[in-house]
Amino acid sequence: MVAELTGYLRANGEWGLRNHVFIMPLHSVLCSAGRKIAEEAEGAVSISHDWSGEVDSDLERIILTLSGFASNPNNFAVIFLTLASENENRIIKLAQDLGLNNFTEISLADAGSIQGLIDLGIQVAAPYLIAATQEKRSPAPWSAIKLGLECGGSDALSGITANPALGVASDRLVRLGSTSVLGETTEILGAEHLLAARAIDPNVGKKIVEMVARYEASINYEGIDIRGAQPSRGNIEGGLSTLEEKSLGAAKKAGNEKFIGVLEFGEVPTNAGLYFMDTPGHDIEQLAGFGAGHINIVVFTTGRGTPTGSAIMPTIKVSTNTPMFEAIPDLIDLNAGSIADGTETLEEVGTRIFDEILRVACGELTKAERGGHHEFSLSRMYQTVVRG
Amino acid sequence: MGLLNNIAGYSHGNRGVGIRDHQLILPSVICSTHVARRIAKELSAVTFAHQHGCGIIGEDVAGIDDFFAELADHLNISSVLIVSLGCETIQGQELGARLVARNASTRYQIIQESGGVEGTITSGVASARKLSQDFPKTSASIDSLRIGFDNSRNFDEANNWIEALERDGAEIIKSENHRSSTESFAELMTKKVHLVISFPDDLQPASGFPLFPVLNVQGNSSLHNAISKDFDLHENSSTRAVIEMVGSIANGALTIAEATNSGEIRAPRIVRSV
Fold this sequence. Notes:
A: alpha/beta; seven-stranded parallel sheet; four-stranded parallel sheet; 16 helices; 16% strand; B: alpha/beta; Rossmann fold; three-stranded antiparallel sheet; 9 helices
């Protein structure tokens, strides 16, 4: 275990656990330039997305996601690649309101061409990268950690091994003063009453139930019974039988502490403690919501295995079973299958996850970071009417 | 015989005769896009980032499956390697079985069954190289070039251009989508065009599509004037210059968007992710 938690204190009081120079294209055509800049400017990171400035019913959700992601405290500096449009200006302004104060905007028009944008981006990134590398980590309080709880490719052991072990680590962090956020509304369907019973007050419990009902209504609006569409085929092949079984297991990631609040997709938590955020179960959209909500570290449990990572949030992968951990060793950081094997207890694996969170928070790279996995996905509602 | 009646292309079996000989590394889910990109880089193949393949429900399941099948069946594609994670909604082996029934030059690689990322890349590169050996480049001529028109911007002279291109032997397919070039390209891909002439909106940049060349036509907006280097043609170009440029691109010269690899794919979706 590391002796002391360290991080980077931002001007708005938030803590970063990484010091990224983040290249953020605000139009899909500029994403190839973003990737190229990140390739050439060693140490910089970027994302790809498919928003081309369309103004539709998803615009506000997209603006919220991109501005929140840009202002995530893990970013030392952000280089926005833009067309200098009105909505891109809104994204940058909102990112500033959310705490971003170290950024440069490069417009395609000013650069003169895509190649000019790449050349200029590399030039602008260079001094940021030097400054980011030179900045020293400082001793940080426990409140510096904002942990995202995620699962994907779940199997029959998820709710028995990795998820409850993560719950042990989450509980310990919450008791120390950190923030922990459970997402994936899809995956608490059928277990919402159990989470509501753990709310700090009836109002928070009511909000959890309402959020789940709103989510289910938004799917039913499309004429689809979500309880028939989940668990996914991959989950079924992994041994899960019903959505309720999946949900009961997924909810265990949040341990046993009380929920102090609920968050809309991409909303930034304001106090330390355990929250529920309304995100899809889609792993990458959920990661985008966490990033927009200023989560600075994620633990991702998986039964089937996934290479997924984030450009800006270190993502620790925990396997639910030993055979998968051994089969794809370059994807998984920790194995919780030892609980099912009978070689470790839940508490012991929970402690290992806790220790790994601290090591990664203090700078140790995850396998997803070492592999350069920077998946990103905008979450769209596609004109779905969300009924409150 | 027009200038566009006898283009030197490549025979791609059931896909048709294309003007490019691209090997497509097709990620069947967003989780495999990074691995697909690394494989593609080793081979100088084409690939793309996308946000789909899992967490989709309702009509989107068939819609995305069909979209991937259309990409794999495009006439500029020589062979396809599907890179699947293994537990996603769009299952790699099923997509592979569907695609191979149409085109034998199709293989798939599953990350969860290939030893992880590095194992998948090693196996995937070997599999893709074998595909290239088994289905080597085969020259063929194209009698009639299929050109897509992306009219995201109104262009008064468009009909003159179309008439001139048709006189020189091209078949013109107009996009019915006028919302954005990205969406037009996806639509025109399904209509199996060899290349696209794009008139991006005054406030939109030049853009591209991984599977086919896009010739971008500059307008007179301040944005277009500021980034004139990103355009292949100008609205003021003569129809002869347009035809010569199309002929040159069809015969192998790269468009600016191809050279800069710009342009992402946006698949049509109608239901939120779960």
